[in-house]
Amino acid sequence: MSTIPHADRFRALPGDDLPQIVPTDVCLACDVCCRFPERESFLRPYFTAEETARAIAFGASPESFPQPAGGRIRLAPHPDGEGFICPCFDHRTQECAIYPVRPLDCRLYPLSLMRDEAGRALVLGLDTKCPYVRDPAHAPRLDAYARLVGRTIESGLRDVVHAHPDLVGRYQDDVAPRMTLGPLPSSRP
Ligand code: SF4
Ligand code: SF4
């Protein structure tokens, strides 16, 4: 993933300091993230109003954000293949064009915020669609990361999550719960 000069000109937001847990070289050789089978995939990334404004200031097209007050990005048809891609994804280099200002939803991955199976609680889980997660050798590292992210959400991101309940996705049986973070935000996706 690229480092774009002068990224520090852009306003810092809660969660920006979360580290990328999967090594960059692993991600650059992977074909899972940032690509989606359907245009309206519920997995396309969610941007808060602040994240939207920052992404546009960084160079993303305003047309990619149909809900600038907070919502999921508008996907683009894959230029060379089937399905859809995030419009910020460069399919030739596999890089995110807004990497320094990517939203919390992308920063968390392969962790994911979702409802529990009963639809009552907010759960932080590890997405086994990520091949790095499926390798048992990475489990201790990922569990430590989940604890770090859980603490970060509890201490500094709870207001963001409650202001943006659509950040919390539907229950997915291939996302392995690591932590329950209390009741769901008041309004649901
Ligand atoms: S699925 Fe996992 S390994 Fe693949 S790009 Fe996403 S985070 Fe990286
Ligand atoms: S914002 Fe960047 S990291 Fe997130 S889905 Fe789009 S290209 Fe991928």
Structural notes for this entry:
This protein has helices at residues 24-28, 49-58, 104-108, 131-134, 139-163; strands spanning 35-36, 46-48, 70-72, 76-77, 84-85, 89-90, 95-96, 111-115, 121-127, 175-183. It folds into two domains: 34-103, no CATH class; 109-189, no CATH class. The protein contains five helices and ten strands; from the N terminus they run αββαβββββαββααβ. The longest helix has 25 residues, at 139-163. It is α+β, with helices and mostly antiparallel strands. It is globular and about 40 Å long. The site of one iron/sulfur cluster has 10 residues, from loops.
Features:
189 residues; disordered N terminus; 5 helices; binds iron/sulfur cluster; three-stranded antiparallel beta sheet; single chain; alpha+beta
How would you briefly describe this protein structure?
This protein has 189 residues and is of the alpha+beta class. The chain has two domains: 34-103, no CATH class; 109-189, no CATH class. Helices cover 26% and strands 20% of the residues.
SSE diagram, text form:
Elements: H1 24-28, E1 35-36, E2 46-48, H2 49-58, E3 70-72, E4 76-77, E5 84-85, E6 89-90, E7 95-96, H3 104-108, E8 111-115, E9 121-127, H4 131-134, H5 139-163, E10 175-183
Antiparallel strand pairs: 1-5, 2-3, 4-5, 6-7, 8-9, 9-10
Bound molecules: iron/sulfur cluster (2 copies).
One iron/sulfur cluster (SF4) binds at residues 22, 26-27, 30, 32-33, 109-110, 130-132.
